[in-house]
Amino acid sequence: MIVWICFLSAILLFLALDLGIFNKNPHEISSKEAGKWTAIWVALSFVFSGVIYWLYGSGLVTNPDNLKPTAAAVKYITGYLIELSLSVDNIFVIAIIFAAFKIPKKYQHRVLFWGIIGAIVFRGAMIYFGVYIINKFAWTTYIFGAFLVYTAMKMLFSKDDEQFNPKKSFVYRYLRKITPITTEINGEHFFVKKKHIRAATPLFVALIVIEVMDVIFALDSVPAILAITSDPFLVFSSNIFAILGLRSMYFFLANMLERFSYLEYSLIAILSFVGIKMLIHDFVEIPEWGSLAFIALSLILGIVVSLRMNKGEKND
Question: How many domains does the chain divide into?
Answer without folding.
Answer: 1
